Amino acid sequence: MACRFLNVSISGYHDWATRPSSVRAVADDSKTQLASAVFEWIEGFCNSRRRHSALDYLSPADYEALHTTAEIAA
User: Fold this and answer.
1) Which parts of the chain fold into alpha helices (H)?
2) Count of CB atoms situated within 10 Å of the CB of 8
């Protein structure tokens, strides 16, 4: 049993496992959810396949691929 290996009593492990989340853990979870929501919004709004005149009518993905391969070759 893990409790014996970790030298922890069963009741101590149960208390640890069932304790409420800390304020820090809750804040980290909300930041993660916010970052995911922002990423999804950006990906939905800024279509990576849409052509842009500022990029010589290349899609952002194509423009990045073109310049990434050019930098690697140089």
Assistant:
1) 2-6, 10-17, 23-45, 60-73
2) 15
- Alpha-carbon distance of 15 to 35, in angstroms, equals 32
Distance in angstroms (rounded) separating the CA atoms of residues 73 and 67: 10
Q: Is the CB of residue 28 less than 8 Å from the CB of residue 22?
A: no
Contacts made by residues 39-47, CB under 8 angstroms, sequence distance 24+? none
Instruction: Report whether 60 contacts 48 (CB < 8 A).
Output: yes
User: pLDDT digit string (tens) for 33-71?
Assistant: 999 998 888 877 766 666 677 778 887 778 888 888 766
What tokens were used for 22?
A: 């800390």
Q: Which two tokens stand for residue 35?
A: 């970052």
Is the whole model's pTM more than 0.85, yes or no?
Answer: no
